[in-house]
Amino acid sequence: MTRPERRRLAWGLTGSGHFLRECLELARELRDVDFFLTKAAEEVLHMYGHRVEGLREGFRVFRDTTASAAPVGLFYHGHYHTVIVAPATSNTVAKCVAGISDTLVTNIFAQAGKVRVPSIVFACDTAPEMQTESPKEWVTVYPRPVDLEATARLKAFPSVSVVETLDQLRDAIRQRMAELDAQPDAVVSEPAAE
Question: Quick one: DSSP state of residue 46?
Answer without folding.
Answer: H
